[in-house]
Design goal:
Radius of gyration: 23 Å
Number of strands: 11
Strand order of the largest sheet: 1-2-7-4-3
Bound molecules: protoporphyrin IX containing FE
Distance between the termini: 69 Å
CATH superfamily: Cytochrome P450
Helix content: 40-55%
Length: 472
């Protein structure tokens, strides 16, 4: 009989990639494809290893079992990396994303409720209108025969327009108005969060550079706009008390929460969570849309299959109703496959709240942990022919492969902190991809190898240039 091996493994037993004497692996970790560098190290050092970021040692885990346990043991045993909270708070963001413990629990409930299936169904007219705007913009590119469109900018504008209306009922049309300051301000924030979280020394506090100063101005401008929205929403609730029963947007719903006795929603938290919606719903969704287009522009037969599915499901340019989207199964499979191969959140940063043991691995209190989640999606034992883009693997009756293990995909995180915007983003992406493929042929205007992954808290495609041709 085999007895289970109960020998404890400590962090000291794990290997560490060679780095420089003082900064350790920091130089590699500053690179824009750091998530892929970690994947390479997994091949060399195994699913568990440590890296040195200057004086700090961090555990890297690409083990799906351990990663799943860490995700599930929150908020008690693990939290987000405390540096994330530090950077967020310094920017004035008191949000559900960086809250912990009881404070997080109280914020999570109303945020998740505002994004549940029933609410998203109610938001569909907004998604439909913004998709129509996007399609008319792409129509313009096609009519003027433009052959190198940096489509990610339009996807960012689309997601900002959708989330601003859902968040505080404000109608933006960034897609047709590039000058809109909101997009410009928000675009600065994500890369700066990434830089600051991974910076060994907070240089922006000691010697702020031009970008730091610009960020400060942008944060100030956003604050002014959002506090004005809060003031207006408060007034609306006073004038129309019936809105308290049925708030018309996310901000009104949070204001109702803020009137409860044990509320955690003060002005700062209201502001923070509106910002969180905008930030969390922007890059993640627009990057995933862009990566999906990256594959579609190389697979005309797949575009054709989506087109046929769209023609069968609805008659106009954009799906008329939320209910029609359940029939866009192939479109959904294409997006799942793009997420598997190009997750926009391939690594997540955590910290241990207490001494813990998971599967013989002893993790001391305060250990910094990087969950490398994209490695597992690229393994043939989880997904046969893992490197191949094949949406059919997501359709049970058409899956040509033996191995299919969707549980290892953690693009939306997991456990009680699973991304609450997952359903909303899937609805947005299905609507957009189906609609684009219904009306346009796509071509990549650059060699696929020139489209590079850039990790700036989320991974976006650099140099993605696409040509759109209207189909008859
Ligand atoms: C493709 C699109 C998206 C991806 C890949 C994505 C991914 C993620 C991931 C990985 C997390 C961390 C989860 C964890 O810690 O376990 C997260 C958290 C979060 N996401 Fe998303 N997200 C997307 C879209 C959205 C949208 C559209 C919204 C809202 C408008 C949203 C709101 C949030 C919020 C509020 C959190 C914090 C949840 C918490 O800490 O409890 N996300 N998301």
């Amino acid at each position: 009989m085999n007895t289970p091996d109960t020998t404890l493994i400590s962090l000291k037993d794990l290997k560490t990639p060679k780095g420089s004497f003082l900064s350790g692996n920091l130089n590699d970790f500053k690179k824009k494809n750091k998530h892929r560098i970690l994947e390479e190290w997994v091949k060399e050092y195994g699913e568990l290893f440590t890296i040195k970021l200057g004086p700090i040692k961090a555990l890297v885990s690409a083990n799906p079992d351990i990663n799943n346990t860490i995700l599930k043991q929150r908020p008690e045993k693990f939290r987000r990396l405390s540096k994330i909270n530090e950077v967020f708070i310094e920017m004035g963001f008191h949000t559900v994303f960086n809250a912990e413990g009881e404070h997080w629990k109280k914020q999570r409930k109303p945020v998740a409720e505002a994004l549940n299936v029933r609410k998203v169904k109610g938001y569909y007219p907004i998604i439909k209108e913004k998709t129509s705007n996007l399609i008319s913009k792409i129509n313009g590119y096609s009519n003027s025969n433009k052959d190198s469109i940096e489509i990610i900018n339009d996807f960012i504008a689309f997601t900002i327009d959708v989330t601003t209306e859902i968040a505080f009922g404000y109608k933006l049309n960034t897609i047709h108005n590039k000058e809109d300051s909101f997009q410009n301000h928000l675009e600065l924030i994500f890369p700066m969060i990434n830089e600051r979280i991974t910076a060994p020394i907070p240089m922006w506090r000691i010697l702020p550079n031009k970008r730091d100063k610009k960020l400060k101005e942008s944060l100030k401008s956003i604050e002014v706009i959002i506090y004005q929205f809060i003031k207006e929403a408060k007034q609306r609730l006073i004038e129309n008390p019936e809105l308290k029963e049925n708030p018309s947007n996310f901000l009104e719903a949070l204001l109702v929460e803020s009137e409860k006795e044990d509320t955690v929603f003060d002005e700062k938290t209201l502001y923070g969570n509106v910002i969180a919606m905008l930030l969390a719903g922007e890059d993640t969704t627009s990057n995933t849309l862009s990566w999906t287009l990256y594959y579609l522009a190389q697979h005309p037969k797949i575009v054709d299959k989506i087109r046929k599915e769209s023609i069968n499901c609805y008659s106009g340019n954009v799906a008329d109703e939320h209910n029609q989207l359940v029939n866009l199964k192939y479109t959904n499979a294409v997006i799942q496959e793009a997420i598997r191969l190009k997750p926009t959140t391939p690594i997540l940063f955590f910290q241990a709240n207490e001494d813990t043991v998971i599967n013989n691995l002893s993790i001391p209190k305060d250990t910094r942990i990087i969950l490398q989640n994209s490695h597992a999606s690229m393994q043939d034992n989880n997904f046969s022919n893992a490197k191949q883009f094949n949406p059919n693997r997501w359709i049970t009756s058409e899956c040509p492969y033996k191995n299919h293990n969707p549980k290892v995909i953690k693009a939306f995180g997991g456990g009680s902190r699973l991304c609450p915007g997952m359903y909303l983003s899937m609805i947005e992406m299905t609507t957009v991809i189906s609609s684009i493929c219904k009306q346009f042929d796509l071509n990549l205007s650059v060699n696929p190898s020139k489209v590079e992954e850039n990790f700036a808290f989320t991974v976006f495609p650099e140099n993605l240039l696409v040509k759109f041709t209207k189909v008859n």
